[in-house]
C-alpha cells in the first residue's frame, strides 16, 4: 500500500496518536501502583490494552496490581499473558510461581512416556522462532559447503564439503520438525485460567451431568472443546470434564 493512500495515512495517524496517548497513561498507571492505588492502576493499564497496545511489561504490571488486590485469578491470567510474550523473563516467572503457590488446587502432572519426555525436552530447548533461525542458518551453511564440494580442487576438501553439507541438511530437517512440533502444540493447547472462587466440573455440558471434581480460582487448564455455554477442559493430571464458559478466561 502506497504512502499517498489517504486511508493508509489515516490508519498511520491514528496508530501514532494511540501510541503517544498510551505513554502518559502508562506513566500514570505506574505512579498509581507506586502510590498503592491499585484499582486506579488496573483501570489505567486496562485502558491501554483496550486501545490495542500490549507488551510483556504491561501485562506484568497489571498482574502485579491484581495480585496486590488479592485477585488471584486475574493476576495469574496476566502473568501468563506476559509470559507468552516474554517466556524467559525472570521477574515474570518468579511472580507467576509465587501466585501459583497461593492457589488451592495442587495438581500433579500426569506421567509421560520416556520418548514423549525426550521429545518435549528437545522441542523446548528453543522457541519456535529460534528453531526457524536454526533451520535458516543450517541450510545456508549447507549451501556454502556444497559450493566447496562443487568447486573444490582437492578430494579431501570436496569430501568435507559434501558430507558436511549433507549433515547440515539433516540438522535443518530435524530443526524444522522440532519447530513444527512446538507450533502444533501451541495451537492445540489453548490454555485458560479459572476466574471464579470455585467451579464444579461435570461429565457432560449440562447441569445434570455427573459432578466429577471441583476447581478453584487461579488454576490453569487446557481447553479441548467449546459450545455456546460450556467448555471442555483438561487439567495437568489428565482428568477431563465440562464447566461453564463464564467461569474461566482464555490466556
Task: Provide a descriptive summary of the structure in words.
The protein has helices at residues 6-34, 38-50, 56-68, 72-85, 90-101, 114-123, 128-151, 155-188; strands spanning 190-194, 198-202, 211-216, 220-226, 230-234, 240-244, 248-250. It is α+β, with helices and mostly antiparallel strands and 251 residues long. It is extended, with a radius of gyration of 24 Å. The two termini are 33 Å apart.
Provide the fold topology:
Elements: H1 6-34, H2 38-50, H3 56-68, H4 72-85, H5 90-101, H6 114-123, H7 128-151, H8 155-188, E1 190-194, E2 198-202, E3 211-216, E4 220-226, E5 230-234, E6 240-244, E7 248-250
Antiparallel strand pairs: 1-4, 1-7, 2-3, 4-5, 5-6
Element pattern in H and E? HHHHHHHHEEEEEEE
Major pleated sheet: 5 strands, antiparallel
Number of strands: 7
Strand order of the largest sheet: 6-5-4-1-7
Query: What ranges have pLDDT less than 50 throughout 5 or more consecutive residues?
Result: 7-14
What fraction, in percent, of the residue positions are helical? 55-70%
Radius of gyration, in angstroms, nearest whole number: 24 Å
| Residue share in β-strands | 5-15%
Helix-and-strand structural type: alpha+beta
Measure the end-to-end span: 33 Å
Number of helices: 8
Shape: extended
Mean pLDDT reading? 87
Can you give me a brief rundown of this structure?
The longest helix is centred in the C-terminal third of the chain and has 34 residues, at about 155-190. With about 250 residues, the protein is an alpha+beta fold. The protein has eight helices and seven strands, in the order ααααααααβββββββ.
